[in-house]
Design goal:
The chain starts with a helix and ends with a strand. The chain has a single domain, classed as Porin. The protein has an eight-stranded antiparallel barrel with strand order 1-2-3-4-5-6-7-8. Helix content is 12%, strand content 67%. It is elongated, with a radius of gyration of 20 Å. The protein is built from two helices and eight strands, in the order αβαβββββββ. A hairpin with a 2-residue loop joins strand 2 (52-63) and strand 3 (66-88). By secondary structure, it is mainly β.
C-alpha cells in the first residue's frame, strides 16, 4: 500500500511539472452532477442506483488535442434492505439492514479530444488516483464502520456540446474500480453517468 501511495505521489509531481512547463494554452474547468450504478459483487452489498454525487475538475493543454488535469469526485451509495433475520457468529438479529458507501476520489486525468468541425466534441479520458472510502453497515443496534485509502481507476468517454466559445455542456459515462474488500464484496465497481458545465479559459 505504501508503494502504491508513493507511486501516486510521483505521478502527481510529474503531472504538476508538465502542467507548469506548458505555461500557455487553454485551461478547462468543469463542474458535474454525477450518478452511479453498482455492478459485480459490489451490487450484493448495495444495489440501489446512486443519485447523490458531484465532480469538479481542471485540465490544461499539454499537446495536440491532449490535456492533463486533476479532478475530485464524491459519490454516496445507500440502500435500505427489507426486514429479515441476519445471522452472526454469536447469534442473530431480526431487523432492517442499511448499507452505505461514501467515496472521495482525487484523480489525475489524461484526456484526448477528437478533431471535430461541429459544436460537439467527443473525448476519451483515463483517471487514476487515491480514494478515501467509508463503508458503513447498520443492523439493529450494530453499527459497523470501515474506512480506508485505495488507488482507483476510471476510464471515461464523453462529449462536450458547445454553447459558445467559452462554455459547453459535458455529458460522459465512466467505469469505476477500487480494489477494496468489505463484507459482501471483493471490490467496488460501478458504472457512472454525469452531466455538467465546462468553461474554457484561453486568456493565459
Amino acid at each position: 500500500m505504501n508503494q502504491m501511495i508513493n507511486n501516486m505521489k510521483k505521478l502527481v509531481l510529474v503531472s504538476l511539472s508538465m502542467m507548469c512547463f506548458v505555461s500557455f494554452g487553454q485551461r478547462i474547468y468543469n463542474f458535474n452532477y454525477s450518478t452511479g450504478m453498482p455492478i459485480g459483487t459490489y451490487s450484493d452489498y448495495v444495489s440501489e442506483y446512486s443519485w447523490q454525487g458531484f465532480e469538479v475538475g481542471y485540465q490544461k493543454d499539454v499537446g495536440t488535442n491532449l490535456t492533463l488535469g486533476f479532478s475530485y469526485r464524491w459519490q454516496k451509495f445507500y440502500e435500505k434492505k427489507d426486514r429479515a433475520t441476519y445471522e452472526f457468529e454469536n447469534g442473530a438479529i431480526t431487523s432492517n439492514l442499511y448499507t452505505y458507501s461514501f467515496i472521495n476520489n482525487l484523480n489525475v486525468t489524461l484526456n484526448y479530444y477528437m478533431d471535430n468541425a461541429s459544436r460537439i466534441t467527443p473525448y476519451f479520458s483515463l483517471a487514476a488516483g487515491p480514494a478515501f472510502v467509508e463503508n458503513r453497515l447498520v443492523i439493529g443496534f450494530i453499527d459497523l464502520d470501515d474506512s480506508s485509502w485505495k488507488i482507483g481507476m476510471s476510464p471515461q468517454v464523453g462529449v462536450i456540446m458547445d454553447i459558445n466559445d467559452s462554455f459547453g455542456i459535458d455529458l460522459k459515462c465512466n467505469y469505476n474500480y477500487l480494489p477494496l474488500q468489505y463484507q459482501r464484496f471483493s471490490s467496488i465497481q460501478f458504472v457512472g453517468a454525469s452531466i455538467g458545465l465546462v468553461w474554457r479559459d484561453s486568456s493565459f
